[in-house]
Amino acid sequence: MPAAKPPSPAPSPARRIALLNVKYSPNLGDGLLSECLEAELARTFQSIAPGTEVFSIDLAGRRAYPPIAPSRRAALIAVLEALPATARGLATRLALTALVRLRLGRHVRARLAGCDAVVLGGGNLLTDADLNFPMKIAGALGQAVRLRLPVAVYGVGANRQWSEAGRHLFGRALGAAKLAYAAVRDARSQAAWRDLLVPQGVRPAVLSGDPGLLASCHFPRPPLPFDAPLAGLCVTAPMALRYHATGGDVPSAAEARAALDAWYGEAARALVQAGFRVALFTNGSPEDRDYLDAMGPAWILAAKGPVTMTNPFADPGEMTWFIAGCQLVVAHRMHACIAAHSFAIPTIGLRWDVKLDSFFALAGRGHCIADTASLDGPSLTALARRAVAEGVDRAALENLIASTRGDIARMAAALARAMQPAKAAA
Q1: Residues 99, 314: contact at Cβ < 8 Å?
Q2: Which helix (H) or strand (E) holds 21?
Q3: What is the pLDDT of residues 142-186, one digit of tens each?
């Protein structure tokens, strides 16, 4: 009589994994990387625990992409910039304390019900602009600690410009969490984590690929155009560049506005002279949209060629569809550049934050990033022609995408191991 076959191992139970991020920010770059991480983590878990649900919890308590409508954000940034540093810090701290205690705590607690793990992931989250992320992340991770959920950090950016209060908030939150895995998106972020968090007892972080690099894996590419090649010129408001920029001398608001007003008109004309149709677009931030609406007609007149303004995008899918249809993208916004690179579209980065330099170095395109102050019309025309002629190194891009998928798979495996004891105890 043949020996009985051993029973097949029971499949792992389906999981629920919550991502803490700012998915529903008006800046659709945040939504893009969040959707890519959701999709890739769910795909990876199909071989670990089929049926796993992966979803996002927005750190501002938002539940959907905001409608395309006027926003008070630009006015709020202007007010904050006008306040003395002490008054600005007090005002933002009071507002954030109310948000975290009265709204965000309930929102996160309700959404974490029935979850098995939490991932803090994607985006420039470990930054401290008026204690915004330190307070929100500390509040959200506090809920995960209360539920004894394993936590992973994946693909975040970190800078060193933290206040003392922000450093303690980040350190206490991550130190108290059941941290199963920690990965940041570039060497500068890794060094900041090592110097600011490891001394507080937080485990070291490894390097990982930005989830936005997987845009071409999870979003479709439109058909190629039949007419002249299209260059997407991403417009960013000067007040946003001033408020979030790191390092270097910051010009006055009037100086920054005048310089950028002139530069975008010259840039549109330079791209026309390089042989492109030009589409002016934004990542969706209200201050960027307002700036484009105000200045776009003048830039179109200055360009003296085929230049148009795109309609605002409703969600990351619409933005990615547009970017994937371009043959060149010129942008300050990092995830406009990352999405384009994922689709092997040449990009020209406009320097404003070291995170953009880090990405262009990682992509092997350090020669294609420049400061607008040094990138006049003829220089941009020449750089645009060179970027398109060179194209994107497909083999290097495929390696970068495969490496990013491997990074997410390693994070998923660490989370799966961390979840096993909890399931066994249950």
Answers
A1: no
A2: strand 16-21
A3: 999 999 999 999 999 999 999 999 999 999 999 999 999 999 999
